[in-house]
């Protein structure tokens, strides 16, 4: 049996789909399973033992290059080759976990005999399906939402597992990186991810600086900033405002190495972003700062995490632009610090 999973992006969404992959493999142990994913999140699933094949869409790269005269023909050739590769196998079952127009088109182009997904989804992606599952409760967590699609196939789902495979070389790179920056893996380490793709999800840089200084001074911990190359300016600005030194790992690790780093951390403090879900997958406790989004839908999955929200009536609004960002500005340094201290075993106000 040939099965195609369509879950293109983003990093957190792909992490949320990992338990569905394992449930699908358990239900169809002899099947050949392929995952269609975009390039930014591909490393999350690379070498997963439940997968037989990965097809990578370079949609973002193609979108940037298709209208450039010097790259137009090459890009068009790559797209045609991608579509040909997508249609190479005759899929018995295609599951659209994304539920967007971009995933719906690819679900149709795959030529799958059974094209399964949720009915009445955004962007009319359900029009490309021939098997539609009743619309989901929008307040259901994404992990449960995806697992329900697998349950519709008769699969049993127990104890969702989030496996992000990495090898010894990834872990050795991370340990060496920490050693080279005078951090022993036995030291208390807190990963801090201040960045996010939405402007409205960002917490004040000054607050991050003050928070990190308090953690270093009062909790005797090392701070490691995480993020991508695009986050370097932000993290450098935060670090420059700190009294104590912190390690900036932004842009220095791929996703598998980031998973290794977060598996070694005692705690992660983060905005609502992809690395938050990687930390959760690695069973690292998370303190997450939420504003415009709903943690019951897309927060860190599991019981060992804390979500900090303000009580403003307009949250969650799911807006990417806001004049006040009140839902984020009302969250104080003391709010975040107190929960971080408790996660590390302190009573707050602090007692040692």
Characterization of the model:
The protein has 352 residues and is α/β, with parallel strands linked by helices. The chain has two domains: 150 residues, Rossmann fold; 176 residues, 3-Layer(aba) Sandwich (Rossmann fold), CATH 3.40.50. Helices cover 39% and strands 15% of the residues. A six-stranded parallel beta sheet has the order 3-2-1-4-5-6, sandwiched between helices. Helix 1 runs parallel beside helix 11 and helix 10 packs across helix 11. It is globular and about 60 Å long. It starts with a strand and ends in a 9-residue tail after the last helix.
Count structural domains.
2
CATH homology superfamily of the largest domain: Glycogen Phosphorylase B
Shape: globular
- What number is the mean pLDDT? 95
User: What ranges have pLDDT less than 50 throughout 5 or more consecutive residues?
Assistant: none
Number of helices: 14
What's the Cα radius of gyration? 21 Å
Sheet with the most strands: spatial strand order: 3-2-1-4-5-6
What is the annotated CATH architecture of the largest domain? 3-Layer(aba) Sandwich
Beta-strand percentage range: 15-25%
Distance between the termini: 58 Å
Q: Examine the coordinates and then state which fold CATH places here, giving the name of the CATH topology of the largest domain.
A: Rossmann fold
What summary fits the major beta sheet? 6 strands, parallel
Provide the CATH top-level class of the largest domain: Alpha Beta
Structural class, from secondary structure content?
alpha/beta
Instruction: Estimate the helix proportion, in percent.
Output: 25-40%
